[in-house]
Amino acid sequence: MRTPRIHILTPITGADAYVPSQFADLVGTFVTISCSAISRGPASIESVADEMMAGPEILRSCLALAADGVEAIVIDCFGDPGVAAARELLSIPVIGPGQSSLHRAAQLADRVGVVTMLDNVLPLVRDMGLRAGLDGRLCSVRALDIPVLALEGEHFAQALREQALAAVRDDGAEALILGCTGMFGVSERLSTYLTGEIGTYIPVVDPISSAVLDAVALARLGLSHSKRAYINPPARTRESILTLR
């Protein structure tokens, strides 16, 4: 069976992109992973304004990747910036970690919680839950009050443990989602901590890992988004801002 090419696009500047080896244990030899970051745009995405500023470069990059033969693209941000627009322009799968992880968690529990970074993104996360069809099931959305670029160190770890535990104990969450791809790599440790504190297994979904696996599955299955749902835009709307360089 062929090995599909999956690309992870980080939609911020000034940060290192992933390296393929970080996903080796996840995907094995079933897929070829490549990674890059956009060259122009915001340094982090923490608002709708940030998403809009990243949008043109996300779409330019996606068009270039598809032209180069990539078979599925993952947009590396929990807010799924540019995903719907890229699906209109492309016929290959474009996966958002937010949508992917929300649906993944909904397979694991009836009541789902999200722990994200800042208060100003809480309404965005709640709206994502509604659009994912989780109205009534997204029971907890909590923020760490830590910016994306500071999600590291013991201060971050302590805040994450506190808010995650509160989401389970106080809000009734039965499964949690890390509401920022900048938290990559901590899901297993957090699940172990929560399971120890609560006394029963609490799954924690890592959004970028979930999205990568969805991209692999769709590429292997030969599936992509419906073009009745994501209709190709009229040619006149494709302004020079999206011209491949």
TrEMBL record:
Signal peptide: none annotated. Gene3D superfamilies: 3.40.50.12500. It comes from the Bacteria. Pfam families: Asp_Glu_race. InterPro entries: Asp/Glu/hydantoin_racemase, Hydantoin_racemase-like, Iso_Racemase_Enz_sf. PANTHER family: PROTEIN DCG1 (PTHR28047). Belongs to the HyuE racemase family. This is Aspartate/glutamate racemase family protein. It comes from Sphingosinicella xenopeptidilytica.
